[in-house]
Amino acid sequence: MQMKQREFKIDKETNFSEWYNTIIYGAELADIRYNVKGFVVFRPWAVAAMKRMYAAYEKELEKTGHGPAWFPALIPEKNLMKEAKHVEGFVPEVFWVEKAGETKLEERLAMRPTSETAMYPMYALWIQSASDLPLKIYHSSQVWRHETKATKPFIRSREFYWIEAHDVYATREESEAQVREDMQIARKVITQKLGVPFVFFQRPQWDKFPGALHTFAADTLMPDGKVIQQPSTHLLGQNFSKAFDISFTDEKGNKQFGWQTCYGPAISRIYASVISMHGDSKGLVLPPIIAPIQIVIVPIARKGSGDPLVKKALQIKEALEQKDWRVHIDSRDKTPGFKFNDWEMKGVPMRIEMGERELEKLSVTLALRDSGEKRTVLEKDLEKRVMQEAEAMTKRMLEKAEKWFTARLNTASTEKDLVKRLDKGGMVRIPFCTLEMNGMPCAESLKKKHAIDVRGTRYDQKEKPSGKETCVMCGKTAAVYVFAGRQY
RNA sequence: GGGGCUGUGGGGUAACCUGGUAUCCUGCUAGCUUCGGGAGCUAGUGAUCUGAGUUCAAAUCUCAGCAGCCCCA
After folding, report:
1. Residue A420's domain spans which residues?
2. A17-46 residues near strand B (Cβ < 7 Å)
3. pTM of the entire structure?
4. Shared domain check, A37 and A170
5. Strand B contact residues in chain A (278-307), C-beta within 7 Å
6. Residues A70 and A135 in one domain
């Protein structure tokens, strides 16, 4: 049969915006036609995957002693206003509820932009003694922020879906260990399971979470070379515990304030990274662990061959489902070529093709989405092979991503060199005066002149400038190496 | 933060400059023939973002609103 040549062919590295917009529509991930600025509809194919991301994350959080809770979406104004820096950072972006029906509320209510101020008044009630600590709670929810920057589905919107974990300890040391645990969880879920590499940075003082002592945030790259932030974890110190009176009486009878951390993996944004990191010119490439359908069976029928084929497909589906695979038989009245392309756009990891040829040989053809390879597999080996191939695919996807990512980490020692390198994207290490507040003018100047952001010092590498190197902006002796990049 | 552009059936578009009948592809529905990399034929279906203004007449010109996109810093 004569087939038409029609293919989704956009190179994500040379034209990422177009690639992204096309895939959002083509793979049915989101619909931007809701017509409220910054709000989009998340469609089933995306949500089914994101729910699995939630599950993977929640599993790790529960393994590390976190309990789930649901806190209200609305926060009384007086609670939101309790911590000065927090107010300064978040109040400009808050959506307010001021009326109920036609009645004006006596105290207006904030739609949570983040849940510290919803949770901590309750923490103050729950924590009385050291035996109430540590308190580790996570909250899977959406939050609302009136973003002024350009919005893009999953990457930045005014409503987004995330998890926030809020922990309280008796000592600073324990809370610092929590920050490290948060980083490990991110590594385990985002890199090991979803194949997205990143680097954790300690953010400069002028770019930390409003109200925190220190902020640590993971950054990865989009195909156009721009930086996108992944989860961040914050050492809150005692700023909030003092503002909200989260305190306990120690064994000597003295009042002590809790040491707090908060952690915020934005699931919708991590999803943006996953699809962008792995996708190709045929569409999505989903990591098997989150693919809503992991194996699609495409029966290839000839006239009269229908019945035995359908029976065999069902049999294979049931056998694989016994092993917990998510399997779908595509029995639509479409040609095989159409179905191949359709499921490739959707990023389904494995495809089983079966027609008369396979029936005769008691085999199937197994096609792999990431590499495009097709393999003939005997029916009796199928369950085993599917498992092996899924594992190999997950591994390949991470290796490919890591290779791509590390090739885009560079170094520069002058402003000119930095700009030259960042024009090609990636993140570039530079000598910099300081992460303390007096380094802010240099960072602002970089931002203003070149749209370059200082991301902070690498958490996993403690190397420092020799003493001879100078800050790329002010020329003073550099105290730190920071990474810089152009940010989403 | 600054600048530019756009809004036409479900999707992609033509007509817009120079006002007058809305084009094509795709999708969708029905039927028949098909099915190993986006099938064919036949018959149907479906659109000018919202509001105001100019005009005999507005998809087209003007203004406002809403929404989206891109670029620069």
Report:
1. 409-485
2. 17-18, 20-21, 25, 32-33, 35-39
3. 0.97
4. yes
5. 282, 300-303
6. yes
Question: For strand B, which nucleotides have at least one atom less than 7 Å from a protein CB?
Answer: 1, 11-12, 34-40, 66-71, 73
Complex ipTM: 0.94
Q: Which CATH number is A415's domain given?
A: 3.30.110.30
Q: Do residue A215 and residue A160 come from a single domain?
A: yes
Q: Is A40 in the same domain as A187?
A: yes
A21 lies in the same domain as A91: yes
CA A69 / C1′ B51 distance in Å: 47
For A252-262, the pLDDT digits (tens) are 999 999 999 99
A52 is a domain residue: yes
Are A433 and A357 contained in the same domain?
no
Q: What is the DSSP string of A426-480?
A: SEEEEEES-SSGGGHHHHHHHHHHH--EEEEEETT------SS-B-TTT-SBP-E
Map tokens 């699609």 to a residue: A296
Length of chain A: 488
What is the nearest nucleotide to A339, using C1' and CA? B38
Per-residue flag: A95 CB under 7 A of strand B: no
Report pLDDT for A1: 46
Write down which residues 372-431 in A have CB closer than 7 A to strand B: 372, 374
Cβ(A57)–Cβ(A125) below 8 Å: no
Total number of domains constituting chain A: 3
- Residue A378 bridge partners (DSSP): A363
